[in-house]
Specification:
about 80 residues, four-stranded antiparallel sheet, alpha+beta
Length: about 80
Protein backbone atom coordinates (compact mmCIF):
# COMPACT_ATOMS: atom_id res chain seq x y z
CA UNK A 1 0.00 0.00 0.00
CA UNK A 2 1.09 3.59 -0.62
CA UNK A 3 3.66 2.41 -3.19
CA UNK A 4 5.75 0.70 -0.51
CA UNK A 5 6.33 3.91 1.42
CA UNK A 6 5.53 3.76 5.13
CA UNK A 7 2.54 1.41 5.12
CA UNK A 8 1.86 2.21 8.78
CA UNK A 9 1.32 5.89 7.94
CA UNK A 10 -0.87 4.93 4.97
CA UNK A 11 -2.99 2.71 7.22
CA UNK A 12 -3.30 5.53 9.77
CA UNK A 13 -4.55 7.89 7.07
CA UNK A 14 -7.10 5.36 5.82
CA UNK A 15 -8.31 4.78 9.37
CA UNK A 16 -8.64 8.54 9.94
CA UNK A 17 -10.65 8.95 6.72
CA UNK A 18 -12.91 6.00 7.57
CA UNK A 19 -13.53 7.22 11.12
CA UNK A 20 -14.23 10.78 9.97
CA UNK A 21 -16.55 9.90 7.11
CA UNK A 22 -18.00 6.57 8.25
CA UNK A 23 -17.25 4.72 5.01
CA UNK A 24 -14.58 2.32 3.77
CA UNK A 25 -11.66 4.16 2.15
CA UNK A 26 -9.21 2.79 -0.42
CA UNK A 27 -5.92 4.54 -1.14
CA UNK A 28 -5.88 5.59 -4.78
CA UNK A 29 -2.58 7.48 -4.91
CA UNK A 30 -0.45 10.06 -3.14
CA UNK A 31 0.79 13.33 -4.52
CA UNK A 32 3.33 15.84 -3.25
CA UNK A 33 1.72 19.31 -3.32
CA UNK A 34 3.46 22.66 -2.90
CA UNK A 35 1.71 26.02 -3.02
CA UNK A 36 3.72 29.23 -3.32
CA UNK A 37 1.49 32.22 -2.66
CA UNK A 38 2.08 35.83 -3.73
CA UNK A 39 2.72 36.94 -0.14
CA UNK A 40 5.45 34.31 0.17
CA UNK A 41 3.46 31.87 2.28
CA UNK A 42 4.21 28.28 1.34
CA UNK A 43 2.14 25.19 2.02
CA UNK A 44 3.70 21.83 1.30
CA UNK A 45 2.48 18.30 2.05
CA UNK A 46 2.01 14.83 0.69
CA UNK A 47 -1.70 14.45 -0.01
CA UNK A 48 -3.24 10.98 0.01
CA UNK A 49 -6.19 10.58 -2.32
CA UNK A 50 -8.69 7.99 -1.11
CA UNK A 51 -11.57 6.49 -3.05
CA UNK A 52 -14.85 5.99 -1.17
CA UNK A 53 -16.60 3.30 -3.24
CA UNK A 54 -19.63 2.94 -0.92
CA UNK A 55 -20.29 6.62 -0.14
CA UNK A 56 -23.55 7.74 -1.80
CA UNK A 57 -22.38 11.22 -2.85
CA UNK A 58 -18.65 11.59 -2.11
CA UNK A 59 -16.43 9.59 -4.48
CA UNK A 60 -13.10 10.81 -3.07
CA UNK A 61 -11.47 12.17 0.06
CA UNK A 62 -8.14 13.93 0.47
CA UNK A 63 -5.96 13.59 3.56
CA UNK A 64 -2.67 15.11 4.65
CA UNK A 65 -0.59 15.72 7.71
CA UNK A 66 0.12 19.23 8.99
CA UNK A 67 2.07 20.60 11.95
CA UNK A 68 0.16 21.34 15.15
CA UNK A 69 2.61 24.05 16.08
CA UNK A 70 4.06 26.67 13.75
CA UNK A 71 7.55 25.30 14.31
CA UNK A 72 6.39 21.90 13.06
CA UNK A 73 8.60 20.08 15.54
CA UNK A 74 7.64 16.40 15.40
CA UNK A 75 3.97 17.08 16.14
CA UNK A 76 1.42 16.54 13.44
CA UNK A 77 -2.31 16.18 12.89
CA UNK A 78 -4.07 14.22 10.22
CA UNK A 79 -6.35 16.38 8.09
CA UNK A 80 -9.33 14.97 6.21
Amino acid sequence: MDNGIDTKAADEFLTAVEQRLGYKACLSYREHVRLDLLDGTVWEATVRVCDLPDHPSLPRAYAWSSPEKPSGLNHSKRRV
